[in-house]
Amino acid sequence: MSAVSNSNQGVIGLAYSAGKSAWLAIAALLVTSSLYYVWSEQSAFEAQLLLLGMGLGLCLYHASFGFTTAWRNLIVNRDATGLRAQLVMLSISVLLFFPVLGSGELFGNSVSGFVRPLGLSVVFGSFVFGVGMQIANGCASGNLYHLGGGQIRAIPVIIGFSGGALWATLDYEWWTSLPQLAPVSLIESFGVIPAILANLAVFAAIYLLTRSFSTSSSHSEGVSAPFWSRLVQGPWPMLWGAIGLALLNFVTLAMLGRPWAVALAYPVWGAKVAEMFSLDLELDFTTYWMQPGRDSALLESLTADAGSLMNIGVIIGALFAAALAGRFGLNLKITLRQFIGGLLGGVMLGYGATISFGCNIGAFIGGVVSGSLHGWLWIAFALAGSYVGTKLRPLFGHA
User: Fold this and answer.
1) Domain membership flag for residue 1
2) Are residues 234 and 62 in contact, defined by beta-carbon separation less than 8 angstroms?
3) In angstroms, what is the C-alpha Rg of the chain?
4) C-alpha of 103 from chain center
5) What does the pLDDT look like over 171-220, one tens digit per residue?
6) d(CA 347, CA 42)
7) Contact assessment for residue 14 and residue 277, using Cβ atoms and an 8 Å cutoff
8) Pick from 368, 381, 385, 399: CA 20 to 30 A from residue 100's CA?
9) pTM of the shown model
């Protein structure tokens, strides 16, 4: 009986090993073929943007670095582990970004941050985004790497996000015409060094405040694994993810002249789908699409759109990371309530992000590391929305 049991375990082990190798081979083929395709269709620069997105996806997956769960844990469980990792990422980013943005150039290329007005569009949009991320069970970047990891539940969220973002482009002029304060740049107002010190002081204050009331995360991160094995296969401590994302965001600044932005691609995807169905929305005449950098997005292919390339790269990078870890597998489980929550939450994510100048990456992280006060306004109301969203989660089948 023992011999039969051992034989069965051996067969199962071989099958698992073969399945893991197959997924890794598929992931490697997808990485190389997509890079070659973009290179041949566009240029080496676009292929490098795709590769950059893959690196971001690998970091997000290996570190399970998200905002939805981190904020919910803070609100519900008083666990600030995720928030503290975000503070580390912000601290590193501020040290890297502020001197460069203060000089206006990096490696001889012009760079600029996301410095936006403080108005009702930011207040309302970030609040709606916060609600949406909880009932959709994921944010803009989170659903990309969830999809890469085989979570099919991310698909209705991405569809809803694209639709909501397209809808918001039609209302964009009305929202931006509402009362608002002029953009405030701490770098321009106080200088690079004082702005850095002020931000680091705020990060430290938030860290100490959370220590006074929060509990610690209880999950194990597998610290006994060898360093190189853990680096390649994961899982990573969230600290590793924070460092990796900060550095890759700085690479984004060097390549594109602006910080990392995830939500910029979703209106483009929505517009492309609308075009496929011959929906005449007269997008060319809307204020949103007449902005610099947006006006050509409707005419170009997705392989020429930087935001789309990086988002697609995040999906592929997460898939590759999951295959490296031996954890990739299609998870087709989704209830009707979760599907509806994904679509509805996705629409809220897309609409909210578009009218508030971005999501948790572009508006919050991008705003703060640019020295813009709108980033702090955004996170304040996004957290408020996230609090409301946590109360609504059971309605859509989430704990």
Assistant:
1) no
2) yes
3) 21
4) 27
5) 999 999 998 999 999 999 999 999 999 999 999 999 998 887 766 554 44
6) 31
7) no
8) 381
9) 0.92
